[in-house]
Structure formats: C-alpha cells, structure tokens
Amino acid sequence: MTTLLAIETSCDETAAAVVRDGREVLSSVVASQIDLHTGYGGVVPELAARAHLEVLGTTVDAALCGIDGGWNAIDAIAVTRGPGLAGCLLIGTAYAQAAAAARRLPVVGVSHLAGHVYSAWLADLELEPPFLALLVSGGHTDCVELRDHGTAIRLASTRDDAVGEAFDKAARMLGLAYPGGPVIERVAGAGDAARFPLPVTRLEGAFSFSGLKTAVRYVVRDLGTAELDDAGIPRDPAVIAAIAASFQVAAVEQLAEGLGAAADRTGAEQVVVVGGVAANTALRTAVRQRLSGLRVVVPPLHLCGDNAAMIGAAGWHRLKTHGPDMVSFDADPALALFA
Ligand code: KG4
Ligand code: ZN
Question: Residue 138 C-alpha to ligand 1 middle, in angstroms?
C-alpha cells in the first residue's frame, strides 16, 4: 500500500491531496485564487506565486488533518513539475522537495497534463488505457492517446490559443467576468445562437481558436457605436447572450468534431474529456452525441478544474514506472506530456 501526498501549484489553485494506491482519494483540498485575479481579467503570475507561498502550508495541513497518522501515514510526495507558471511551480516543487528531504520520503515530479488525463482514471474505476483524452483547459487544448500507463502520444494540439483562453478572451469582449468559461456557459443558456452565426474551424490533426476569437471581435465592432458602451461592450444583454451562445456552439463543435475524427482514425473504443473546460455541459453533451457507442468518461466538476488528487493518481503511476526523482529536480514550465 502506498499513500501519496500530492501538491499542485501550477497556476491559480493551491491544492493538496492524499491518495492511496493511485485511485483512492482520502482527502483533496483546493484553495482557489480566483477572487485575487478577477479584477485583472486573468491570472497575474507574480500574485499567484505569492498566494501559493502564503497558503500552501495550511492547504497541506488541511489535506492531512483527517488522515490517521497525518504525515506519518505518507509514503511519498508527488508534485506538479510543469507545465505552468514558473514562479508558481517553484513554490510547489521547493515545498515538496524540502518536505521529502526533511522526512526522508521519495518525491516524484508529475506533468500537470498527465494529471488532467488521470482525472478520468480517478472518476471511472473501470477505465484503463488505451483511451483517447481531449484535454481542454486554460493553457492547453490537446487530443492525446494514453496507450498504456506512462505512455502517451499527442494526436492533435491547438495551433494558437487554448480553448479555455478563448472562452476567457471572448468573455472579456462581452464584458463578462473572469474566468470566462463558466460565465459564457451561463449567459449562453438564454442566447439565440442563430442571431450572430460564427464560423466553426475544422483542421486535420489540429485545433485553432484565434479565428473564432477574432470573429467575436468583428461581430462586436460591427454592432456600431450606438450599441456599444464607452468600453466597447455591447449594451444589450440579449446581444451579449446571443454572441456568447454562438461562440460556445462554434467552440464546442470544433472540439467534439476534432475528438470524433481522432477516434475514427485510431479506432478508439474509449474517450475521456478532461481539464477545466470539460465542466462545460454543452461540450459534454456534444461529445456524447458525436461518440455515441463508445465509452465516454467526463469527470465530475471537482476533478475537471485544477486539483491535487489527479496529481496523486498520475504520480503513483510515475513512481511505479520511473521510480522517484532526485530531490533536486527542477520545475519545468514547458514540461512535455509524460516526460
Ligand atoms: O484546467 P483549469 O482549471 O486550469 C488550467 O490548467 O488552465 O482550466 C481553466 C479554464 C479557464 O479558461 C476557464 O474559463 C475554463 O477552464 N472553464 C470553462 C468552464 N469552466 C471552466 N470553460 C467553459 N465552460 C465552463 N463551464
Ligand atoms: Zn489544469
């Protein structure tokens, strides 16, 4: 039996979890910084790193406080090594390395992207590779094939913006709060998607969201000054809702179609959708429709956004396949998928 303490600080959530044998989540605590960054319309890296430093200790304490034996129950530490914001990653890796050295525990550096992929493995106890994963977050839009534990290949990636980033930027143009994904989803519910039709990008083996983002900018501009406030935001909530709805339709269709094409090409029988944007109900529905007949796993909301339980799951596999890392390994803001 191996009980891991897992730590995640790659972006704007400070998270710690205790995970037994890869799949049994004994505790999972997420301290969100959203309120800190909302006023800036996006994550401010320096503020994020400082906030991690302030709350990581108490977040780890909170994850350990309900565990019999506390620190003494921990056999190893897993920490997100990258990709992510350099200053933020450094806080987590330095903490994990110091704790591992002090307590003479093995430590393993984990890919944040592998963590997201393994959130589906946590969510469905019968899921085993091979499966295709559509990884959709604020920083990434990838379709990857997990062939076996620890072996993944990338089938398609975005050529420009990540889809979550596109949601956030479109929200900004519509005067909606950060993070934009959940707000666009809520506002789109009342919108007429046919009023301002937006193009659906279709690329072979790739995604792209900058064209869609620009299309939103032009639709807003073409409304004319009478329809816009001083900040260039549409005044009419029905117009905002309609553009949000149209944006969501175009983004979701590109993702579901791209995943569908990858599944057709590879003959996959199982697909998962993971990452913050996997919380989007329209995306969940579209993927289930496009891939009906396949096993489709979309984790519950608490596993879609950044969390440390997924790092514990991926870290447990990495410990098994690669063994522990040197206590002095570096954070790597551009870490590859399963490096
Ligand atoms: O995975 P995540 O929590 O952090 C990163 O690793 O980036 O993803 C955050 C992203 C943000 O861009 C946010 O707007 C988006 O996920 N998001 C959503 C929804 N909830 C969060 N996008 C669309 N619909 C949602 N319901
Ligand atoms: Zn993430």
Answer: 5
